[in-house]
Structures are given as C-alpha cells and as structure tokens.
Amino acid sequence: MARPEEYPHSSYRSYIRKEKEDIVHRDLILEMISQRRKEGPKSYKEYVERAIGEEYESPFKNIYAGVILGSRSFIKQTLERLTGELFDREHIAHKGTNGDVVK
Asked: Angle 34-39-42 (CA atoms, 0-180°, nearest 5)?
C-alpha cells in the first residue's frame, strides 16, 4: 500500500508540513489533535500512520440522513439542536441503514 503522502488527491501533506495551502484549512483539525500548535502536524501524522495496515469498521455504517455520523446519543443531541428548515425529518434522504428515524 502507498504511503499517505503519496496519494495525489489527499490533504494529508497539508496537515503534516509547516507550509499552508489555500485549499486546506487545517487549524481546527490540528487543534483537535494537539493542544500545542507546533505539535499538531506531528501528532496528526502519528494518528494517521497508526491506522496503516489495520482493519477497521466503515465509519459510514452508522451514518444518519447522509450527514450525521456518530453514536445514537450523538445523533440525538445533534437532531435536538437542529430546528426548522435546517433539518425537516419528513424530507431526509437517508435515515439510517434500516430506515429508522432517530427520535
């Protein structure tokens, strides 16, 4: 398997290098990975490379409405924050793997 930095259409290089690119806004992700700004790229690189060669469950298994990804409780919390026209439950394109609406 190729290294992450070898993929031509990946943002990986933008996260591990010091120079910024206009198309990738990396600050939020790097802040989530490390509390120390300078350590963010190194921590991100270690995080990604730990998964190389590992088998993992598809993150799309528990996707709700095509836009909310997370545990059942996270989805419920998110739905409670969305109101009005932002998220009309009657017009959801995909409500889950078995078609249930989370209430």
From this structure: 100
